[in-house]
Design brief:
two-stranded parallel sheet, alpha/beta, 11 helices
């Protein structure tokens, strides 16, 4: 019998794909999610599987988390407040969810000696200009007067907490920094750019690019990302370390908008919206964000299998089907 895995945030975008892959590989899976940003629809096809249990609860419910952790063999902690829009509008929720949630997961895992993989983010690099970003690079974070940096700081604290539990108590902890993961089931509700561009293009609406569109990103397919996560769960040399997980295929946001329009056969125009109007006065963005994946490649042989166009086509097909079902 394979080890039972507890996935926090299991009904979310990445979480649902991870649960699905784990089940396909024969692992019993328990998913906990309060559905604040996750969706039951993401996992409804898994509910009837005998090796899958879904618990609708917040990870800060210590009694529930204690029971689920004690009955599992390892924890993959994905639950977090994510998305630029959510972070700007609900900074207290962001900070509390990320820091208190992660502390609860770590203290509970430590009670039972369970390995924990913690999902972090490229946001922790802040305004760093040393591209590509390496895991041990210095970080440059904006002022505390800008909510923009609350998420980056809260996730950095998550990393510090995880590594502190490893060093002080010997808890097996692995930190995973995700770089712009995309794929089916991702919502554009909280500022994620690819699903938002895709729905706008499919509906023939203006595709809204924030800023001047020259900012560039690297988008990784969720299928590649969850594959890397699963390999990290079982590699002994991953413990106590930090790994970038992403793609190195860099694209400007303006070029991304053009690609989405072309691949979806849309007649949409591109409309530029100032950051101050899209988010909040004084909003700061990073011009480039590209990961070094050398460390991950050396450890587990990671190489992305999906090109950006492959991933965009997967998202377009998913959104087109979803719109057809809803009649929108």
């Amino acid at each position: 019998m394979k080890e039972k895995i507890l996935v926090t945030g299991g009904a979310g975008f990445i979480g649902s794909h991870l649960c699905e892959r784990l089940l396909n590989q024969g692992y019993p899976v328990v998913a906990i999610d309060d559905l604040s940003t996750g969706k039951l629809k993401n996992i409804e096809h898994l509910i009837t599987q005998p090796d899958f249990l879904f618990v609708r609860e917040t990870i800060t419910n210590t009694q529930v988390l204690d029971r689920l952790t004690s009955e599992s063999d390892l924890v993959i902690h994905l639950a977090a407040a994510v998305g630029v829009k959510l972070i700007i509008e609900n900074p207290v929720h962001t900070i509390r969810t990320n820091i208190i949630g992660t502390e609860t997961v770590l203290s509970t895992a430590n009670r039972y000696g369970r390995k924990v993989l913690i999902a972090s983010t490229s946001e922790v690099y802040g305004k760093g200009i040393s591209v590509p970003f390496h895991e041990n690079d210095d970080r440059l974070i904006g002022p505390t007067t800008h909510n923009r940096w609350a998420y980056a700081t809260s996730k950095a604290v998550d990393e510090f907490l995880g590594l502190a539990y490893h060093r002080q108590f010997g808890l097996p902890v692995v930190i995973m920094r995700f770089f712009n993961t995309i794929g089916p089931r991702q919502t554009g509700r909280y500022g994620m750019v690819v699903p938002r561009f895709t729905r706008q293009a499919l509906q023939g609406e203006p595709v809204t690019v924030y800023g001047d569109g020259k900012q560039s990103r690297c988008f990784a397919d969720v299928s590649d990302v969850v594959g890397a996560v699963i390999k990290l769960t079982h590699h002994p040399d991953a413990v106590g370390d930090v790994f970038n997980i992403g793609s190195t295929e860099e694209v400007s946001v303006f070029e991304l908008a053009k690609r989405v329009i072309t691949l979806s056969n849309s007649q949409s125009e591109i409309e530029f919206i100032p950051y101050d109007q899209a988010y909040a006065p004084g909003f700061e963005d990073m011009r480039r964000r590209q990961p070094s994946i050398e460390k991950l490649t050396q450890l587990i042989g990671y190489q992305p299998q999906y090109s950006l166009d492959d991933s965009l086509n997967r998202v377009i097909n998913y959104e087109r089907e979803r719109m057809s079902e809803s009649g929108s």
